Amino acid sequence: MYRVIQWATGGVGKAAIQGVLRHPELELVGCWVHSADKHGKDVGELIGEEPLGVAATTDIDELLALDADCVMYSPMLPDDQVVAKILRSGKNVVTPVGWVYPDRENSAVQALEEACVAGNATLHGSGIHPGGITERFPLMISGLTAAITHVRAEEFSDIRTYNSPLVVREVMGFGLTPEQAMSGPMATLLEAGFKQSVRMVADELGFRSEPRIRSTQEVAVAVTGTDELVVPMEAGTVAARRFKWQAIVDDKPVVTAAVNWLMCDVELDPPWTIGEKGERFEVEVTGDPDVLLTFKGLQPETVAEGLERNPGVVVTANHCISAIPLVCEAGPGIKTYLDLPMITGRAAPDLAR
Ligand SMILES: NC(=O)c1ccc[n+]([C@@H]2O[C@H](COP(=O)([O-])OP(=O)(O)OC[C@H]3O[C@@H](n4cnc5c(N)ncnc54)[C@H](OP(=O)(O)O)[C@@H]3O)[C@@H](O)[C@H]2O)c1
Predict the structure, then answer these.
(1) Most-buried pick from 69, 179, 251, 290 (CB within 10 A)?
(2) For residue 7, how far is its CA from the centre of ligand 1 (angstroms)?
């Protein structure tokens, strides 16, 4: 059994705890919480289930002193110093907050590599988008085709299910003017991760792409105002956003990662829609032959269901949890999908051998 500590109990953290509990090779031994009012609470209680006999704590040193193999690190704001401390204490780290394909020339990345070596530990960045749809799955299906000219990974999501007014308005920029939204933090927050994914695909497929990954962003505004959504929206304020990151060869894109976020059912200017296929993720490899893969099920069926438990959040957690046994067996250092064996899920407990 691999002994796991969960770091933070937000949406991803709660799903990760459930993932650990259902995984036959994993055992939950500790849990860090950011919120002081969660300190000392049983982790089972924090996820709305039976007590587990594991108390949550805000005390980092107490957790680092535990005998544990791996930390699932999913706080809202990542802290390199904390990650380095965890690695130095000899614990592996899986996380959806970065390091999917980090730049090894960057001094902050080098410091984490050193922490890995000092603690004989591994750091693995994962997730869904980025951390799955944008690089692992395109690379996987790229093996089916030849003479590749373009790879596209694209999200189409309805933001009505994002139940955090603060994040939706202040971070994602919905309900703000186009100027406020475009100059807000979202593009910068997203691009660190997505640029790594685009770079990973371009490098691995051998494109002679420019070193710079091109970023673009566009917005669509609400034609009429509404108070019915997660944030109030006046006419002319942002109700949809589109971001794109592209690797370029000879002025043409060869790898594209894109995000389309729409407040569906709001009339938009320009008149974007999510399309007849609805919410989805698409991966398309243009080559001989062209291959198109559409992922359904990673977004909720209804707005109400999404507000309760969002499958995208659960998938993000599962992708990290599924990697834990492989990460625990890997050598020290930052290990990407290119370094690890195939990451798989496990049978439901009542069907397992
Ligand atoms: N790569 C991907 O595909 C992907 C997908 C989804 C999310 N993510 C990332 O995963 C992380 C967690 O997402 P989430 O949906 O679980 O977020 P969330 O629901 O907002 O919760 C994050 C948790 O972070 C803790 N927290 C609050 N303020 C904090 C602070 N100032 N510093 C450190 N921790 C703080 C809290 O933990 P306690 O409740 O324990 O006190 C909170 O519940 C985010 O960084 C998000 O960007 C990545």
Answers:
(1) 69
(2) 9
Helices (H) and strands (E) in the chain, counts: 11, 14
Residue 331 carries which DSSP code?
P
Residue 167 domain boundaries: 132-308
Residues 6+ apart with CB under 8 A from 238: 173, 174, 175, 176, 177, 178, 180, 181, 219, 220, 221, 222
Within 8 A by CB and 6+ apart from 170, the residues are 184
Tokens at 210, concatenated: 């420019």
78 and 198 both lie in a single domain: no
Q: How far is CA 299 from the centre of its chain?
A: 14
Per-residue pLDDT tens over the stretch 241-267 = 999 999 999 999 999 999 999 998 899
Tell me: do 175 and 234 sit in the same domain. Answer: yes
- 139 and 60 belong to one structural domain: no
Q: Is the pLDDT of residue 25 over 90?
A: yes
Ligand 1 pocket check for 38: Cβ under 6 Å: yes
Q: Does the beta carbon of 8 sit less than 6 angstroms from any atom of ligand 1?
A: yes
Nearest CA among 282, 280, 254, 294 for reference residue 151: 254
Check which CATH number belongs to the domain holding 86 and give it.
Answer: 3.40.50.720
Query: Could you tell me if 76 and 218 lie in one domain?
Result: no
Residues 57 and 172 in one domain: no
pTM: 0.95
State whether 167 and 286 are in the same domain.
yes
Is the Cβ atom of 36 under 6 angstroms away from ligand 1?
A: no
Report CA dihedral (107, 111, 112, 114) to the nearest 10 degrees.
Answer: 130
Q: What is the pLDDT of residues 294-345, one digit of tens each?
A: 999 999 988 788 877 889 999 999 999 999 999 999 999 999 999 999 999 9
Residues 175 and 232 both lie in one domain: yes
Q: Which pLDDT score, from 0 to 100, does residue 309 have? A: 84
Of 30, 19, 72, which is closest to residue 53 (Cα–Cα)?
30
